[in-house]
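#struct-help
A.M.: can someone run this one for me? Single chain, 146 residues.
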Amino acid sequence: MSVIHAVGAQWDKAKWSHQLVSFWQLDAYVNSLFVGATTAITTANLTAALVNDEKRLNTETELTTEDVFGALFDGFLLLFVKEISKNNLTQAEALILQLAEYYAKQYQQLTVTDIKMLNQSQQVIDAMKKLGHLRAQRRSQTRNMG
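D.P.: on it. Structure tokens below:
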């Protein structure tokens, strides 16, 4: 029975990934991020895999900015720690960080009542600023070595 449950869970993640790609196609900026080697479906599949709470993967309703940001936040936490630990991110992982920041800024502009998500969006924005400084510091150290 657990195999059937596992297959069902993977099917739900695949359906949700497809919904996420459709949601991203509605945004010109997000579409512009996928002109490189990594496709939207690759990034969406990775996002679905990183979601911590299976309840976020609801395929019964249309996705909203809140839904997308919530899913990206789960992945953001893991990938942020990975990058600050001096591990390089894949292009899809780097896109998840960039998308999390984009949707965090979008969420900040909404009229929201969910204080938890508002705080999470501010945490992403602040963390990305720190990560930007860390990346710049690493680049300058690399240049100074050569």
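A.M.: thanks! Residues 2-145 form one domain.
D.P.: also worth noting: DSSP finds six helices and no strands in the chain.
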